[in-house]
Amino acid sequence: MDPVLKRITTAMTVIMLVTLALMFTLSGTRVAAGKSTAPPPLGAASTTGRIVNVRLVINANGPHGWPTYTLSQLKLPDHAIIHLTIVNNDNGGSALAGPFGRPEGLIGPERVNGKAIEMSSSIVAHTFTVPALGLNIVVPAAPNHGTVTVEATFRVTRAGTFRWQCMAPCGTGGTGWSGPMATVGYMTGNVEVQA
Ligand SMILES: [Cu+2]
User: Fold this and answer.
1) Which of 11, 52, 119, 180 is the most exposed place for a label (fewest CB within 10 A)?
2) How far away, in angstroms, is 28 Cα from ligand 1 center?
3) How does pLDDT run across 16-51, given as a tens digit for each residue?
4) CA dist., res. 130 & res. 164, Å (int)
5) Which residues surround ligand 1, an ion (CB under 5 A)?
6) So where are the chain's domains?
7) C-alpha 184: how far from chain center
């Protein structure tokens, strides 16, 4: 073969191989990314259409030994349907303030361990309450050394930043309203609804 032609052929073969290798690598990356089943980080909002799944965990013994919601600052898109799951491992109960033993502002019933429940209780572990949004989610106590899972669906229709608060005085002090109940990052925080 003509040496020049041979060099050109070799160069073209190398280019083709490199291109193929690159395509293979890229498609492999895509498949790997598509197959990823890692759960979203706690409290992160994952959007599927207009349904947003949010997961919170309540730890009985957070920092200071205080009961703690794992995420105090929630960001939600306005007008989305929020499917909120709360996993609670706190087996203690507290007497509720006011009418907060009943779920409020939800689409459909609250579900406890997968079962729809007409809940009304004056002693619960915690609540997730956003007064400005008319939202109240009741979290019963977990069994000893176990967890209880609460699911609630609601739609936010108001942009802004709103305070959320647990309404079961699970904190310190004579009334149970000090410590975690009064400290952002534990039993109170903000919900930011983004327009
Ligand atoms: Cu609480």
Assistant:
1) 11
2) 46
3) 544 434 443 443 333 333 333 444 444 445 444 589
4) 4
5) 126, 166, 170, 187
6) 1-38, 46-194
7) 17
Q: Compute the distance from residue 124 Cα to the ligand 1 centre, in Å.
A: 9
Exposure letters 104-115 (e unless 16+ CB within 10 A, then b) = bebeeebbbeee
Residue type, 83: H
Contact between residue 161 and residue 192 where contact means Cβ atoms under 8 Å apart: yes
Alpha helices, DSSP H only, in 36-185? none
Q: Report DSSP letters for 119-134, one per residue.
A: ---SEESEEEEEGGGT
Q: What is the pLDDT of residues 42-94, one digit of tens each?
A: 444 544 458 999 999 999 999 999 999 987 788 999 889 999 999 999 999 99
Model confidence, pTM: 0.74
Residue 12 in tokens: 């073209």
**Assigned superfamily of 46-194:** Cupredoxins -  blue copper proteins (2.60.40.420)
* pLDDT beyond 70 at 149: yes
| Nearest-angstrom CA–CA distance, 157 and 193 | 9
Torsion of Cα atoms, 173 then 69 then 137 then 96, to 10°: -10
